[in-house]
Structures are given as structure tokens and as C-alpha cells.
Description:
Elements: E1 2-6, H1 10-21, E2 25-29, H2 33-40, H3 51-60, E3 64-67, H4 70-75, E4 79-82, H5 97-109, E5 114-118, H6 126-135, E6 142-146, H7 156-161, E7 165-169, H8 173-183, E8 189-193, H9 195-226, H10 230-238, H11 259-272, H12 278-290, H13 293-301, E9 309-313, H14 328-338, E10 342-346, H15 351-357, E11 362-363, H16 367-371, E12 376-379, H17 391-397, E13 402-405, H18 412-417, E14 421-423
Parallel strand pairs: 1-2, 1-4, 2-3, 4-5, 5-6, 7-8, 9-10, 9-12, 10-11, 12-13, 13-14
Helix pairs in contact: 1-3, 5-6, 9-11, 9-12
The structure holds uridine-5'-diphosphate-xylopyranose.
Amino acid sequence: MKIAVFGTGYVGLVAGACLADLGNEVICVDVDEKKISDLKKGKIPIYEPGLEAIVKKNFEEKRLTFTINAKESIENSKIIFIAVGTPQSESGEADLKYVFQVAETIGKNANESKVIVDKSTVPIGTAKKVKEKASEFTQHKIEVVSNPEFLREGSAVKDFLEPDRVVIGSDSKEAAELIESLYKPLDCEILITSSESAEMIKYASNAFLATKISFINEIANLCEKVGADVKEVSKGMGLDNRIGKHFLDAGSGYGGSCFPKDVQALQKIAHNVGCELSIIREAENVNKKQKTIPVEKLKKEFDSLEGKKIAVLGLAFKPNTDDMREASSIEIINYLLREKAKVIAVDPIAQETAKKILSGIEYAKNPYDAAKGADALILITEWNEFLELDFEKIGREMNSKIIIDGRNIYNKENLKKLGFKYLGIGR
Ligand code: UDX
């Protein structure tokens, strides 16, 4: 199948490369000339495990190409994916200007009937509007399919090729079946719905997962007060198949490019039709508070944090990515700085990203250097590199042996034996 993918960001590039890997002829389009010329040289703009290899392989085998020429890519493709950004507008809604720009471009350049696939996360009703927009500029038949992306950063390629499910929403049976055929090689359930339901499935899934995390974080905070350990509690809860064990890890709150944005956008969508989503609103509030908890814990350990040296392990919003959008580390570090603490941070991949976002902190090469003279250590991102540390060595480096385990990854008994004061989340 001949496919064009508009937008070579996270979603577009992964989708394009994976669709090529499934045997399709894919052309990825972007307005950013530098990005396209870099991609042609095999330079991948984001850090994502497995992506570089799959891009390189399919580029060399000529199933994957890159261009800034929108016209040619539309003329050559029956199916056109829209995977451009939908940034958050000031009001909290998704800003659809890039999506509609692409729709217009498709309409203007359509040389035959086309099937447009919305991959970007868009408000309910957008598929219909995209169809109207593109159809304004052409006599050819335009069908639109909503095919939301559920990939997680850090495992995006795997998530695309081994999904739990594929959702295809359209009011055209023919278009839905065409897109279904693309995913047939994958061993997963394919659900065909209306475009509105497909758009809602994306928002509702992310809001549910975010709520699940905030739920366990609230339980964690209660566990602390009543002497329970949230790790044991979430394990016990997760063994119930109705609840499920995933997304029940208490910690310093959720971040990333999706949950915070989608949780707000869904509330806005609801508000616009006179509906209030009180559970989801509280999930957001709990999350904001959760990001302050590591510092609140630290404040109880010292009369003042002024001049205290705090080692921070992990900056990315989660492991295996250099992405720091809405990362808990930003809230935590800025709070520490407001309290006039000195911060020395370390992250295996996200330090360069951090330098553009955070100011007034130092960086260390590794956790041992960060721990030198530190009055406390906060673990924020559970990178593999931080799981098995030599805590005897870390303890020798530190000024006072206090550990705030913001993701509950360490063995609290072992650390206590080594003379640390261990403070987890809900333990
Ligand atoms: C998420 C969705 O999982 C994905 O389906 C969607 O397409 C995009 O948004 P992503 O943002 O990449 O993916 O990360 P995810 O792995 O879901 O984690 C999001 C945040 O939740 C991270 O900050 C993570 O640390 C936090 N989290 C996750 C928890 O605090 N506890 C958990 O149990 C799980």
C-alpha cells in the first residue's frame, strides 16, 4: 500500500517506520527541511529504543522515504496519515491548526479519492471536520478514519508492532476496512467503531490511566498515615483481574506529553457541552500535589533547605526517553530551588534536554558524583542505571544519609541496614 505520513514527530515517525516495516511504501512528510534532510542521513530527532534501526533498515530497502514535498506525496498515496502536533492551547483545548492545514493541503492536491487517517489526538468530532475541510478543496471523494495511537514513549516501536488493540473509527465501512488491512499482519484485536467513539477511546483511555495512577497515589498517602505499604497494597489489588496490575505504581506523579495534556483537554471538551468530569478533575489535582511530596518530605527532615545540597537521580518524565515534558523532576527541582537548596542532578539521557528547561542547577556524570557531599538524595526517574547502586559507596559520599525514593524502587530494609533514613511514597 502507498502511504503518506504528515508529521515526523514522535507518532508520525514511529507509525511511518513501522508501516514500512510491515511492507508498505511510506513517504514521511514534514515542513521542517532540516529534520527531513537529517532523516535522510539516518539522523533520528528523538531518542526511542529500536527506532533508528527500523528507520535505517526500511530507508535502505527503499520502503521508507522522507520529503518536504507535500503535493507529490499526496499524489502518490492512497492513504494519508495525519500525525502532526496538537499542542495545548491557552484554554486547555487541543489546537487543531496544523491538522486542518494538512487537511486543506490534501484537498488541494488530491488527484483521486483519498483516505485520511487521523493519528493525532484530537477532540471528538474532528474526523468529520477534517473530511469537510479537505472536501472543500476537491471534487474527489475524501474519507476520514480516526485511528488513535496508544504508543508509550520508550517502547513506541514495540507498542506499534505488538499493540493490545487497534481502534479504527469511520463512518465509511470501505475506508475502515482499507485501514484494517494495514494492521492485519499484527496479532491483535482490531475494533471498528464510529469516528467519534474512536476519538473518545483515546481520551478516555489516557484519562483512565492517569486516574488509576492518581488513585494509587492517594491510597499511598493514606498508607503512610495508617502504617500500610502501598507496594504490598497495589500488588494485592492488581492480582484481581478486574483491577489489573498495570499503572498501579505509586510515585511522584505522572508526566509526559500525553496524560497531563489529554486530562485537561477532555475536561475542556466536557465543559464545552455542559458536563463536568469531577473524578478526572480530581485526578489532575492529586497529581499536581503528588509532585510536591518528595520536597515536603525533605522539609520535615531539616529546619530549612537553604544551602542544603540535594542529589537528584533522574530527570526524564519516565525511563528510556529524553523527554522532559511535564516531568515531575521540573516541579521538584524548582520547588527545591525556591527553598534555596543546591541541586545536583544526573540522568543517563535527558541532561541535554534538562539544560534547556532548568536553570540554576549542576549536573553530575553519575550517581556517585552527585552524592558527594549531598545532604539528601531524591530518586525521581526509575532508570535501570539507578536500580542497582552501590549504596555503601553512596553513603560514604553523602553528608547525611537520607533517601527519598520517589518511585519506590529500593529495598527499604537494606537501606535502613546501611544506616540510611529511607522515605518512600506510601511505605
Ligand atoms: C501514555 C500512554 O500510556 C500511551 O498509551 C499514550 O499513547 C500516550 O501517553 P507515555 O506518556 O509515553 O504514554 O507514558 P506512560 O508509560 O504511560 O507513563 C506516563 C506517566 O505515568 C509517567 O510519568 C510515569 O512515570 C507515570 N506512571 C506510570 C506512574 O506514575 N505510575 C504507573 O504505575 C505508571
